[in-house]
## 1
Amino acid sequence: KQWYHRRVGKQWYQRRVRGSEVLLEGLGESVKGTWADHYFRGHMDKLKGRYHVALDSFKMCALRAAHLKQIKILGYYEIGLCHMIEWNWSSASDIFLDMRSEAKWSKLLYTYLSAVCMGASERPEGCRHLLKELPGLYKKTMNHELESYCIRRATTISNGSDLRYECHIAALEMLYVWRYFHLTESQANFIINNVNSRPQDLAPSTLAASYLFLGLSWLHLESICRAQQALLVADNIPQVNNRDNYISVATLCELTSLYLHTNQTERAKTTSERAKLHKDYDLEMQIFSRLNSLP
């Protein structure tokens, strides 16, 4: 049903699933019941969309790796991600909050994830408190581009008039760039209703993201015309800061895919070329694989 995930994206998932299967076959009985067994089985089930099964495996991974701190944190991260995919925002927030206390790296990222999930679950006071902490956690490390994005995004969230709405869109952004924006029918309808009743004073980046997710929701429901209309609205919202053009590039990627699906070849080519003109925007490394798959 979700045909809009390009064939390249599907092949990416298939390769990762097969990679986990081959690894488990190679390890054999020697790892059965260990943290590695549970981790790779969870990873495989997550890629296949069996999130409840994956969640149980990652919980067992964290339990079996209690004496291996970094492996336990890796298990916690996957647990939090599974909760996010299923929109269990409160549970996700609690997991990421625990992670930031134990992790040696990217405390800022885990604080940000905890904050947006907390805001999406309508816990405003805790969310605002965590967002205020972000600038003090910044360190110029290998993750500095992602962390800079988190700080900028947190400022937009804090300045918005509807914290829950802002945080929900921000959480969906993270799922999108991590390639785990997979909707159920009820989630698609929720986004449609939510965007249609959105606050009127949204920042351009949040407004464009809203229409991007509106378009993807209509695509999930197989309403191609409405999807194209929403994506074109997102494309026509100019961004004040060049760093926010990650939304523009993501929108152009989705429009290219839609045009290809509907045999609008010339429009697909033109849209693809426009996407590739953008440089030096937030989440560029995360969006690169989508951009690189365009014709």
## 2
Amino acid sequence: TMKTVTKQTKSKSITTPFWRSLAVIIPICAIAIGLGFTTIRYGFKTEVGQDLLRRIEPHVNDDVRSLLPFNPSESVAAIPQPGDMAPHNPQVKEGVVVFLRHLGCPFAEKTLLQMQNSSLDHPNLDFVGVSHADETTTSKWAKAISEKHGEIKNLKLISDERRKLWAQWGLEDHSLLEVLGPRSIANVVTLRLSEGISNRETAKGSNRYARAGAFAINADGKIKYTWQADHANDLPDIEKAIKSI
């Protein structure tokens, strides 16, 4: 009995420091990788970095290209708050504007399906989804998701390839950790298992750092509801946006 106890104690003393060390090493490595990618992203925003990006982009596929940093054409404004006038109204008299993540993302797909259901339930409101892929690619993506695309009069998808609307509405890019962190990856798996929604082919012109956002606008053109995603897997509460109008 004494021998058994001694062996167990010895085994504990060996494994416990190992797991403690691992618990410290993994977060440090994750932080180091995140900082490294952040440094690279900021480097690409310089004149030299932009020139390098232009040379790289033609030689990589859409998946790789979607992970390259995006340099907005204008500075990002402060996000509008309830009571503010809408900074730029994309075809909404009264309703909800939703900024979608990149086309191919399962959370963008889930959001579009939610918008479709809400637009059918509230035919007197306008629903606009903003994509940063071109019009043809956006329409093709939407039709692949639902046969009803184009048949719902109060639901529209518009294209903003240079992401000027993102900047005007105060939506800054995600960090790498917010896009590819364990929380986002785990929710990709959960969404696939629970609803059968999974990653599609990454659409041309997509950028994974694009942050999702949702805003409600009343008939006076004022913001009634503001939301932006903290992580890539976050979904807007469209019904809450509707109730705020």
